[in-house]
Write a structure and sequence with these properties.
single chain, two-stranded antiparallel ribbon, Outer membrane phospholipase (ompla), Chain C, 15% helix, mainly beta, 15 strands, 277 residues, 5 helices
């Protein structure tokens, strides 16, 4: 499926306009608790639908649907989480302004069926990326977050993400927006953006290319959440990444990809008391 930039821009403007029409603003450090606690842990189950590039650097888009779940201590507020955060578990107290812990992400693969122009290029399998994260709230409406992860299966490189989010609550709405920076080592960039002489001879459309590591993307993420009740909420979001440096100079991107990587997503969340201590 191919999406136009105007669709993504329209969604982004709609999110901002909807947030701007709210009557009153309160700084957000954490949303209200999901339910009156009767047990030790609150579970939040999410259904996620995402539209994004079929593979890193692609100009074609595909739908992805997946579930996720997170847990927090009963009686503690639902912490803000940006829609492009990795799945994380804090090793520090959730009520603290500083959080540190374990994070993980899933990276889809690159296959010939995604784009027939990939003929001759090596298949890249899906990858899991476990790692560590740290986030800090210098003030109640501003969050800084960093992740560093290591890939397994599809790629064996180290990747990182840096982000800053302005977060504000307007009644039942929560609006967030902020810049993003992505990094990857040479193992990562060679996997997704490199071309060996043999691959170039088979493909015929691209030339050999040996990229180095460093900055791979710059961009931004914006999201709007509506709390229907203490248990139910919905989040719509837009992500934008622009490939930079050696990733942007890849002949795969130049010949049949796109430096501009846009994603749209929708998440429905339900929180409930597990009854376990």
């Amino acid at each position: 499926m191919r999406l136009t930039h105007s669709l993504a821009l329209g969604t982004l403007l709609a999110c901002g306009a909807l947030a701007g029409t709210a009557q009153a603003a309160d700084p957000l450090f954490g949303a209200p608790p999901a339910a009156a606690p009767t047990g030790g842990w609150i579970a939040t189950v999410k259904g996620n639908l995402k539209v994004g590039p079929s593979y890193p650097g692609a100009d074609d888009y595909s739908f992805v649907g997946f579930p996720s779940v997170s847990f927090r201590r009963a009686g503690t507020p639902q912490r803000f989480s940006a829609p492009d955060d990795g799945l994380s578990f804090s090793l520090l107290e959730d009520s603290s302004a500083l959080r540190f812990g374990i994070v993980g992400r899933f990276q889809g693969g690159r296959y010939l069926q995604d784009d027939r122009r990939l003929f001759g290029l090596s298949k890249v399998d899906w990858a899991v990326e476990p790692g560590l994260f740290v986030e800090f709230w210098p003030v109640e409406f501003l969050r800084a977050r960093a992740e560093i992860r290591r890939g397994f299966n599809g790629h064996e490189g180290f990747v990182g993400d840096l982000g800053l989010d302005f977060v504000q609550r307007y009644g039942a709405f929560t609006f967030s927006a902020g810049p993003r920076v992505g990094l990857g080592d040479s193992e990562f960039t060679k996997t997704y953006f490199g071309v060996t002489p043999y691959e170039a001879s088979l493909n015929g459309l691209v030339t050999p290319y040996n990229p180095s590591g460093g900055f791979t993307t710059v961009g931004a993420t914006t999201a709007l959440t509506y709390d229907w009740s203490e248990q139910w909420s919905t989040t719509a979001y837009v992500t934008y990444k622009r490939l930079v440096s050696d990733a942007a100079d890849s002949p795969i991107v130049k010949r049949f990809g796109n430096e501009n990587q846009i994603g749209l997503g929708l998440t429905v969340s339900y929180s409930f008391d597990t009854g376990y201590y």
